[in-house]
Structure prediction request, 281 residues.
Amino acid sequence: MSALEKFGVEIFTQHNIFERISADKPFRPENPAFIFIKSGTIKLRQHFSDLELSANMFMVTDPQTIYEMVSVSGDFQSRMVSYKRDFISALSLKFNRLITYRYFRQQMNRGVPFAENEMDVVWKSVNFLKYILDSETEMLYKKEMVEHLFSVFCYQMAGIISKEDNNSMNQMSRQEEIVFVFLTDLAEHHLTERTVEFYAERQSITTRHLSSVVKSITGKSASQIIALIVMNEAKVLLNSSNKPVSEVSSILGFSDQYSFSHFFKKHLEVSPSQYRHQFEN
Prediction:
C-alpha cells in the first residue's frame, strides 16, 4: 500500500516524480499536489498557457486540470507533496481558500517565486516528512506524526502564500472573479455544456461581457478556452484508455463519432485515431 493510501500524503523526488507526471503525453493528476523546484527548470502546459518553473519556485496542481510536460532540464531537482483532499479538509477553510486562489493566480502567471531561505525551510520540512513516511522503523504514533508534520508544512505554505499574495485574495478584481468563476464552472460542466451562453448565464452577465473579460485576463477567448479544455479531455481519454473512439466521443458529449472527429481534427489537424496511434508502442 502506498503512503498516499495509508497516510493520505506521499512525497516524490526528481527520481520518481515522473511516475506521477507523465513525460510523453497529456496527463491528469490523481490527487492535488505542491511541486517545489530546488534547481533546474521544468515547463508544463496547463489549461491555456505554459508554466515555466525554475529554482525557488513552486506550483499547485489540481486533478481538474490536464497537464502536458513540455521540457525538463538535466539538473532538475524537485519535491512533490501529493495529498488526498479529505486529508486536508480538517485544516482551516482559510488555507483551502488560499490554495484555490493561488491555483487561480498561477493560471495567469509563469510561476510562483519565493525567497531562497523560505525554500530551505520548506525543503527541510518536506524531507523530514518524507523521512518519517519512508521509515521502516516501528513507530507507535506514526499516523499522528505524519498528520502533524503535514500540518506544519501546510501552515508554512499558508504563511508564504498569504505574504506573497499580500492579501490580494480579498481584493480580487471583478474581472478576475468573473474568470475564476468561469474556469470553476467550466471544470464542472465542460462534458455537457460547450456554449459561451451557458457560462455567461451562470453569472447573469452577457456573453459579450464574459468573452471580453476572459480575453483581457487570459489572452484567449472564452470559446477558445472551452475548446482547449474539451481537447485536453479528449487527449487523455485517447492515450490513457483503450476505449473505442465512438465511446470517447459519447463520454465527451458529442452527438456522434463524426462530430467528435471533425472537432478534434479542426483543433489538432489529425484524427483521434491518428493521435492515439502516436502513443502506441
Observations:
- Residues 44 and 69 are 5 Å apart (CA to CA).
- The mean pLDDT is 84.
- The first strand starts at residue 9 and ends at 13.
